[in-house]
């Protein structure tokens, strides 16, 4: 099926995500780019979805873009109206239970970290550069738990299965709006430095003409009322080079001997 469209990231509120997806679909149609699927949905396998030659538009994470998706083209990135965001850049909050509000990252040496996935920038790889200058002999954390999502990581903190997590600031803001009970008893103890946000991508075969139409449609979509429901307040055209700093930060951590957060990964 040709011209696949999905917005699989930040789908915290299905109604708001569906409404914004429909706005983009309609604007693409107005640009002469009809979308294949009739209704909103989330792809079950993100990597296969992103690699689909028929991909017209999707949103991925920056680290998979640079390590797993060499053939896709970058369209740009949204701006988000969430604390921690600066234009197309975002950051991670370091989150722990309320009782540890006055602690710093260094105080979590030898404790348990929970991460959404090893290929996530905001939940895993950002922590490599943050713990690198703090590491002494051996590993910084006692063990790493992989939860599958930022939401599941927050649940692991609440239930005491882990002690600290790095959470995408846009996800945090959306959960504050739609699921505030999930954040009860948790607090932000620190933050990462800004990084390029989630890239909007299209297939390798997308023409220059179509790429221009995608960017025009996204610029218009970011100004629509439905965009506010998913915290979007702008769009910037970008290329793959914009995400190269993620690799540089990962390489710098490796140069300090940090390629994993803990020896034991669960």
Quickly list its features.
266 residues; alpha/beta; six-stranded mixed β-sheet; five-stranded mixed β-sheet; 9 helices
Q: What secondary-structure arrangement, pairings included, does this model have?
A:
Elements: E1 4-5, H1 14-30, H2 46-51, E2 55-59, H3 62-67, E3 73-80, E4 89-90, E5 92-97, E6 112-115, H4 121-131, E7 143-146, H5 150-158, E8 164-168, H6 169-178, E9 186-191, E10 195-196, E11 199-202, H7 208-221, H8 225-228, E12 232-237, H9 244-255, E13 264-265
Parallel strand pairs: 1-2, 6-7, 6-8, 7-13
Antiparallel strand pairs: 2-11, 3-11, 3-12, 4-10, 5-8, 5-9
First-last Cα distance: 37 Å
Supply the number of helical segments.
9
Strand proportion, as a percent range, falls in 15-25%
Round the mean pLDDT to the nearest integer and report it: 96
Largest sheet: 6 strands, mixed
Low-confidence spans: pLDDT under 50, at least 5 residues? Answer: none
Using only CA atoms, what is the Rg?
19 Å
Helix content: 25-40%
* Shape category: globular
Strand count: 13
Kindly name the structural category: alpha/beta
The H-and-E topology, N to C, reads as EHHEHEEEEHEHEHEEEHHEHE
Strand order of the largest sheet: 9-5-8-6-7-13
Write up what this structure looks like:
The protein is an alpha/beta fold and 266 residues long. It has 9 helices and 13 strands. It has helices at 14-30, 46-51, 62-67, 121-131, 150-158, 169-178, 208-221, 225-228, 244-255; strands spanning 4-5, 55-59, 73-80, 89-90, 92-97, 112-115, 143-146, 164-168, 186-191, 195-196, 199-202, 232-237, 264-265. The strands form 3 sheets. The chain has a 6-stranded mixed beta sheet. A 5-stranded mixed beta sheet has the order 1-2-11-3-12. A two-stranded antiparallel ribbon has the order 4-10. Strand 6 (112-115), helix 4 (121-131) and strand 7 form a beta-alpha-beta unit. Helix 1 (14-30) packs across helix 7 and helix 4 (121-131) packs parallel to helix 9 (244-255). The radius of gyration is 19 Å and the shape is globular. The mean pLDDT is 96.
